[in-house]
Amino acid sequence: xxxxxxxxxxxxxxxxxxxxxxxxAATYSISELASAINGVLEDGFDEGVWxxxxxSGVSVKGGHTYFTLVEDLGGGKRAQLSVxxxxxxxxxxxxxxxxxxxxxxxxxxxxxxxxxxxxxxFGKLSLVMQEIDPRFTLxxxxxxxxxxxxxxxxSGLYDANRRLDVPLVPFRIGLxxxxxxxxxxxxxxxxxxxxxxxxxxxxxxxxxxxxAVREVSNAIRYLSRRGDIDVxxxxxxxxxxxxxxxxxxxxxxASIVESTVPVFVGVGHEIDTSVADEVAxxxxxxxxxxxxxxVERVRDFVxxxxxxxxxxxxxxxxSLNDANIELVETAHLLASxxxxxxxxxxxxxxxxxRRLGTASRGRLxxxxxxxxxxxxxxxxxxxxRIMERGWxxxxxxxxRVVRSTNEVGPGDRILTQMVDGVVxxxxxxxxxxxxx
Length: 436
Description:
By secondary structure, this protein is an alpha/beta fold. It has helices at 30-44, 87-100, 134-155, 182-193, 212-226, 241-244, 250-257, 275-279, 287-355, 361-380, 383-388; strands at residues 49-61, 64-74, 77-85, 109-119, 124-132, 172-177, 199-204, 231-236, 263-267, 282-284, 393-396, 413-418, 421-426.
């Protein structure tokens, strides 16, 4: 094409050239102009052209895929180019997309090659797509992830959620997922099968697509503010890299690090991790594993509690046994000392009797009476004699000695130790003076 123009300026008095008329300039019909434009495009881009941008407005009609490549120019302005991806080409590149974990979807930045075409019926320039460069997209996703992680670490928010304490018994779960999906079913089935007292508050959200980032981040913030949630669980099933890139989005990541409630993430990808995985309190490979992790926490607490009670019961039993042994030993010692005292008293009496052989019989009788009384008192000190007098020892069903009416209540089983055995009974009433 030439920018040179040849104008012939005659004198002002010259008459107009009668030979100059409309037929001297080339005139195109619209279809002819479209054909000419396409000819220029074919000559200028005979090997096609590579273009990068962000996918927007994806639609599928009759097996063909249509979308717009968008470039943000700043200041609210943008450049855009329509792209046509015919069904045959889509079938050819689908294995490439699958092996890379990608999909043609809104928000994905791509580099594609195609042929430019000016379509006369719409008066519109389009790119007829032929190829895609998956490395460009994967590299872009990785760069965005690395940049977000760097910002989080520099701000000190990277491990903010992990610093939160999980309640000992996290029974109240806030579940962020798409209602009715396999992820929802897997999670709730595992929770219900545990037989434990969980309550699950579900917030139904989209986990992929244009609104997914906004809905998931809003749901996390809502549950964090409720005040009656112990743990937030964010779950979804597997998907392509592009679909799972939703959980690399900064709004979702921000909602997790700002949450005042621990967030557990269970997104169905075995190998890759999202930024949401990295900043969450705990990350699980699947929704089922996430639910199982919560169940295990509660069961561990129950097990530890039962073991502690068992230890307390064993220690109490040992203490009671030791106390019983000590009581028996004390009783035996007291009985022995009593018998010794009685024997010594008898010896002293016999000695005095010999020395007082000449004393009056009256004084001797008085001494014998006094000695007998003293011996009787010593006999009564024997613990077995105390029980013979009607004293008893009362214990609870688990062996604790009852020292006060406050230690038992109506309906409690008690065991009463008597001199010749044990009486088992049930408490009907307690108080300073129970009814007879």
